[in-house]
Design a protein that fits this description.
Layout: H1 3-22, H2 30-38, E1 48-55, E2 58-65, E3 68-73, E4 77-78, H3 81-92, E5 98-100, H4 102-107, H5 110-114, E6 122-128, E7 135-140, E8 146-151, E9 157-161, H6 163-168, E10 190-195, E11 198-205, E12 208-213, E13 217-218, H7 221-232, E14 238-242, E15 257-262, E16 278-280, E17 283-285, E18 287-292, E19 302-307, E20 312-317, H8 328-331, E21 346-350, E22 357-362, E23 365-368, E24 374-375, H9 378-390, E25 395-398, E26 414-422, E27 432-445, E28 448-453, E29 459-463, E30 490-496, E31 500-505, E32 511-515, H10 522-533, E33 539-542, E34 555-561, E35 568-576, E36 582-586, E37 592-595, H11 597-603
Antiparallel strand pairs: 1-2, 1-6, 2-3, 3-4, 5-9, 6-7, 7-8, 8-9, 10-11, 10-15, 11-12, 12-13, 14-20, 15-18, 16-17, 18-19, 19-20, 21-22, 21-26, 22-23, 23-24, 25-29, 26-27, 27-28, 28-29, 30-31, 30-34, 31-32, 33-37, 34-35, 35-36, 36-37
Length: about 625
């Protein structure tokens, strides 16, 4: 076989594959073809863009506009999308349950009248590409929940369930959407509320709400969302009238108040009340306005409303009136501060007469930049941030901070600054530290302390106890991990209580006495090494003071680690605190911390096996001694 014949055969084979893929694969399989043959109608619902129902002299037309269903005839309004989708689903699953052939109909012309199909009252037409013929609905059949159905220009008649007839045999208003608006809370970016006492304007910036009028302040996100939900979740009680006529009977010629929801993505053709618009950054931003009117005489649990986008007067449950009682104070965020932890990189704690503490986040951990980037207590930092985030204002003292000395805020006793940090210039920010929130704490008054955010004009009061969680002492922010070794890294250890014992590992990794006699209690020694090598503080107390009892220590423990760079350490345990912890310190580190009583017990375990002779008492080394 030459190459030309081979090429021809290859082309034929490829053509066969292409035919199979593009034609045969699109044909329904045997089971699918059988199912389709039993369907009353076959159509692609995504290509259906309209529905026409003829019910006697009344015509109902529903069209799909911008992926939403709208009533066009005899009423122009938002259609109930769920009801329309149910109709389409029922049509897709509508099965033939019997067939009356055309020849049987032809042989007896009275049959069509008998089946109610000679001039049927109810008809359904789908609009769109590849739509099926118009469907004609006849009388109920003798079989329960079955009826006669035929198609326009078809002589066959079918028996089918009545489900589709029940979907369409309705009054026009039953197709209207009782959900007031299709806006969701997440889509709303701005709110204007007009009440008898004034106007409130709210705007969402990033993920948080703010009050713009009558004062600029942070808003409570949950409370604003609850306010919006009263509109977005409202369901219409009655369809009363179109809003083109006299609105005085409904109290809507001069409504008691209104709420307008603005969506940045709204289409420009979505009409609102005449003149109801707001200029934003040089453009006209249109919203959905709900006006609240009078209470119907016979329906005192309802209230008349006008919803401008739908151009109609409705009734809603009377509860919607509650929005007219809203005051700015009801929507204010009563939390002291918002801290965006996603951009938080630095926390600066500054108090007069104290060394400034700068806590820096790096790779998920916290360090102290003013102490050579020593590790900080990450748990304490998180607890402080949580405490500040959760702290609620006990009182809004002044909305304009015009007299800072009155509240001690001209020279605050403590100031916290939260910053982001960039190591190099980017398109969004310059290199360096960029503060985004600063809290100043002023005078104490009873159980409260005055405070303010420096970028807000308000003076507030918060609990005085909050300051107890914000230590201005950098020593109290140190990492709680005192030692981080493996027990086998400790080469030599000396324990002094009322006497001194000293041990060392030999080249065979066996412990022997440097000062002590008898057998070594290996279990107790191992407990001591395990506790010592991973010693954690309960908390840091700060600067060492005489009251902490280091002049008469309960325990002095010195040890040396093995390796090329042998390092010596000394731990001293002093007085006991009221909470049963004990004061402790380590040579070479500033400050005092506390340890648990159980840790001290492990460090004081007897290392000599009981019953053996003890060494002669020796003089205990001073706390500052170096092993």
């Amino acid at each position: 076989m030459n190459w030309r014949n081979t090429l021809i055969l290859a082309i034929i084979a490829l053509a066969g594959v292409a035919y199979f893929r593009f034609f045969e694969m699109k044909r329904p399989g045997t089971e699918e073809a059988r199912r389709q043959s039993q369907n009353m109608v076959n159509f692609d619902r995504t290509k259906i863009d309209g529905i026409v129902i003829q019910n006697g002299d009344q015509k109902i037309e529903i069209r799909r506009r911008d992926n939403k269903w709208r009533l066009e005839t005899p009423i122009k309004d938002q259609a109930d999308g769920a009801l329309v989708e149910t109709l389409l689903s029922d049509l897709e699953n509508w099965q033939k349950e019997g067939t009356i052939p055309a020849k049987e109909i032809d042989s007896d012309k009275s049959k069509l009248a008998e089946y109610g199909l000679h001039n049927p009252k109810l008809k359904l037409k789908l609009l769109g590409q590849d739509r099926p013929p118009e469907i004609l609905f006849g009388k109920e059949a003798a079989m329960e929940a079955r009826m006669y159905v035929r198609f326009q220009n078809s002589k066959e008649t079918f028996l089918a369930r009545e489900s589709v007839k029940k979907d369409i045999d309705k009054k026009p208003e039953e197709f209207r959407d009782r959900k007031l608006t299709d806006l969701s809370n997440a889509q709303v970016r701005r709110v204007v509320l007009k009440t008898p006492v004034g106007e409130i304007e709210l705007e969402k910036k990033d993920t948080n709400w703010e009050i713009l009028k009558p004062l600029r302040a942070r808003a409570d996100d949950q409370k604003v969302n609850d306010l919006i939900s009263q509109v977005t979740s409202a369901r219409i009680g009655q369809f009363v009238a179109e809003d083109r006529g006299d609105l005085r009977p409904y109290g809507l010629a001069e409504p008691r108040g209104s709420i307008t929801l603005f969506d940045q993505e709204q289409k420009k053709d979505q009409k609102v009340e005449i003149g109801e618009s707001i200029k934003v950054a040089g453009r006209e931003d249109k919203g959905q306005t709900l006006q609240i009117g009078a209470i119907p005489e016979k329906e005192n649990e309802q209230v008349y409303v006008r919803f401008a986008p739908r151009g109609s007067v409705y009734t809603l449950p009377k509860k919607i009136e509650e929005i007219l009682n809203t005051k700015p104070a009801d929507l204010r965020d009563i939390h002291l501060v918002r801290i965006d932890t996603n951009i938080l990189d630095r926390i600066t704690i500054d108090a007069p007469g104290k060394t400034k503490t700068v806590l820096a986040r790096k790779d998920g951990n916290w360090t102290m930049t003013n102490r050579d980037n020593a590790p900080a207590d990450a748990g304490a930092v998180r607890r402080m941030i949580d405490a500040l985030q959760n702290e609620r204002v006990t009182k809004f003292v002044e909305d304009v901070a015009s007299n800072l000395p009155k509240y001690g805020l001209d020279k605050p006793q403590l100031q916290l600054t939260f910053s982001s940090f960039a190591s190099e210039n980017t398109a969004e920010s310059k290199a360096g530290e960029e503060p985004f929130a600063t809290i100043a704490f002023g005078k104490d008054e009873g159980d409260n302390v005055y405070a303010r955010l420096t970028d807000e004009p308000f003076v507030v009061a918060v609990r005085r106890g909050l300051l107890d969680q914000i230590s201005p002492d950098p020593l109290q922010w140190q990492d709680l991990s005192i030692f981080k070794f493996k027990p086998e890294q400790i080469h030599r250890v000396s324990v002094t209580t009322d006497k001194e014992l000293s041990l060392e590992r030999d080249q065979g990794n066996q412990w022997h006495w440097l000062k002590g006699n008898g057998a070594i209690n290996q279990a107790n020694l191992q407990s001591l090494l395990t506790t010592l090598s991973n010693l954690y503080a309960v908390r840091w107390l700060g600067t060492t003071t005489p009251q902490q009892g280091f002049d008469k220590p309960q325990l002095v423990l010195s040890f040396t680690t093995s390796g090329d760079n042998k390092t010596s350490y000394q731990l001293t345990v002093g007085a006991q605190n009221n909470d049963s912890t004990l004061c402790a310190r380590v040579d070479g580190r500033d400050g005092t911390f506390t340890i648990r009583g159980s840790d001290l017990n492990n460090l004081k375990l007897p290392l000599e096996t009981q019953g053996t002779a003890s060494p002669s008492p020796t003089t205990a080394p001073s706390p500052s001694a170096t092993p």
